[in-house]
Fold this sequence. Notes:
- The chain has about 110 residues and is mostly beta strands.
- The chain is about 10% helix and about 20% strand.
- It contains one helix and six strands; from the N terminus they run E-E-H-E-E-E-E.
- Strands 2-1-3 form a three-stranded antiparallel sheet. The protein has a three-stranded antiparallel sheet with strand order 5-4-6, with no helix packed on it.
- It is globular, with a radius of gyration of 13 Å.
- The two termini are about 25 Å apart.
- The mean pLDDT is about 85.
Amino acid sequence: xxxxxxxxxxxxxxxxxxxxxxxxxxxxxxxxxxxxxxxxxxxxxxxxxxxxxxxxxxxxxxxxxxxxxxxxxxxxxxxxxxxxxxxxxxxxxxxxxxxxxxxxxx
Length: 106
């Protein structure tokens, strides 16, 4: 089994619903997301519900995760690894640019 999640199309910034969509489905799960998942060093990230987080943990590798909060997925939000959350910074400094930009469509 491939340990890397099959990635779909980028979704709308700020959409905090579950982005799980099997290849056989026409729609995303769309349940309210409870987890924000960082997939890899490319800063690809997505939202998932509790049920699909269990599937993710059993099937695929991921870089990091944290519970969904208000800043997650917002344009300009940064993934703060040490704080285990996303943060919308209104005063970005060179040091904060080392964090992952998670609220921008790729």
